[in-house]
């Protein structure tokens, strides 16, 4: 993940509904999650080493993006229901 919005799941044109997305921040700095326009000011903040406390469920055409404030970080993403 970088300082510009990085796609973490399927493309926006995915035709599968009901995907469950599990995310863990495998980096040493916070990551921020949201839609294609996510910023560090608008995204859901996930602390270093933390996992989302619940799965995100995406509908048709929805996608999850991530961004970081500086440099790059790693995130682990598991997508089920495909």
What does this structure look like?
This protein is 0% helix and 34% strand. The strands form two sheets. Strands 1-6-3-4 form a four-stranded antiparallel beta sheet, with no helix packed on it. A three-stranded antiparallel beta sheet has the order 5-2-7, with no helix packed on it. The mean pLDDT is 88. It is an all-beta fold and 82 residues long. The protein has strands at residues 6-7, 19-25, 31-34, 44-46, 56-58, 65-67, 75-80. The chain is globular, with a radius of gyration of 12 Å.
Task: Supply the key terms.
about 80 residues; mainly beta; four-stranded antiparallel sheet; three-stranded antiparallel sheet; globular
Distance between the termini: 23 Å
Major sheet: 4 strands, antiparallel
Alpha plus pi helix count: 0
Strand arrangement, largest sheet?
A: 1-6-3-4
Shape: globular
How helix-rich are the residues, as a percent range? under 10%
Mean pLDDT: 88
Element string (H = helix, E = strand): EEEEEEE
| SSE class | mainly beta
Strand content: 25-35%
Unreliable runs? none
